[in-house]
Structures are given as structure tokens and as C-alpha cells.
């Protein structure tokens, strides 16, 4: 049985080219995230508020556990400047690729990270 791990350090900020990117703790572009069951991934809104959504009509309840105050419309979640969004992969989440979008509120710009950013849910051992 795998231990639960938290993948912290997914920060959204402006890089030297004035692009909004998804970064790890070392400020490297980190658009692809590989996850197993019970893994938790967090995104931190640095300098601006964000809107987070999945592409292609993904039903987030199939893949993730999250605070019941989130994703009220089932599709998008706003994240205030300085706040974080965390999702935990369900035990029975199907394996596969999930593409997601992060828009910087008030700018009309999308966050870059292996455009579009994606999560890969790996099969359980």
C-alpha cells in the first residue's frame, strides 16, 4: 500500500519572459504532474487570483476528493491571490490524462505549463 504524499510547490507566478507559468519549488516549469491514488496536489496563487478548470467535461468527483465548498458549479474554482487549491486523488480514480486550465483573473491570460498543463493519474499498484 502506498503512503499518501503531498506534492507541494505548484506555484503560479510570472517568469522572466512575463508569462504566467506553473512552477515547482525551484521555479522550473512544471506543467505535467504524475499522481497515484491518495496523492494530494496543491496549487498556490502567487501574485493574482486564478480560475481553475478541467478541460473536456471531466467530472472531478470521479477523480478527486476536495473540500465540499469547492467547485460549486462542478466545473470551475476561483482561487484568491495568496490562497491555495488542493485536490486528493480518490482510491478508485481511473488511470489517464486530465488536462486542466488556469486563467489569471483580470488578465485573460492562461497559465503555461506543457500547454495545456496536465495531470497523469497512474494505475494503482
Structure description:
This protein has one helix spanning 60-63; strands at residues 6-14, 20-23, 32-35, 40-45, 50-54, 64-65, 76-79, 84-89, 96-104, 109-110, 118-121. With 125 residues, it is mainly beta. The chain has a single domain (6-121), classed as Immunoglobulin-like. Strands 3, 5, 7, 9, 10 and 11 form a 6-stranded mixed sheet that branches. The chain has a 5-stranded mixed sheet with strand order 2-1-4-8-6. The protein is globular and about 40 Å long. Mean pLDDT is 79; it is low at 1-6.
What is the CATH topology? Immunoglobulin-like
So what's the overall shape?
globular
Q: What is the CATH class?
A: Mainly Beta
Low-confidence stretches: 1-6
Q: Give the helix tally.
A: 1
**Number of domains in the coordinates?**
1
Helix content: under 10%
Strand content: 35-45%
Q: CA-to-CA gap between the ends? A: 8 Å
Kindly state the number of beta strands: 11
SSE string, helix = H, strand = E?
A: EEEEEHEEEEEE
Largest β sheet strand count, sense and barrel closure: 6 strands, mixed
Amino acid at each position: 500500500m502506498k503512503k499518501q504524499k503531498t506534492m507541494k510547490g505548484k506555484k503560479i507566478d510570472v517568469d522572466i519572459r512575463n508569462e504566467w507559468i506553473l512552477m515547482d519549488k525551484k521555479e522550473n516549469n512544471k506543467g505535467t504532474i504524475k499522481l497515484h491514488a491518495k496523492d494530494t496536489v496543491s496549487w498556490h496563487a502567487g501574485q493574482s487570483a486564478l480560475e481553475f478548470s478541467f478541460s473536456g467535461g471531466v467530472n472531478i468527483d470521479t477523480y478527486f476528493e476536495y473540500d465540499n465548498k469547492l467547485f460549486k458549479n462542478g466545473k470551475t474554482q476561483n482561487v484568491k491571490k495568496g490562497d491555495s487549491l488542493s485536490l486528493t486523488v480518490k482510491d478508485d480514480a481511473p488511470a489517464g490524462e486530465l488536462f486542466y486550465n488556469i486563467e489569471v483573473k483580470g488578465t485573460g491570460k492562461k497559465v503555461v505549463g506543457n500547454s495545456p498543463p496536465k495531470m497523469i493519474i497512474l494505475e494503482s499498484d
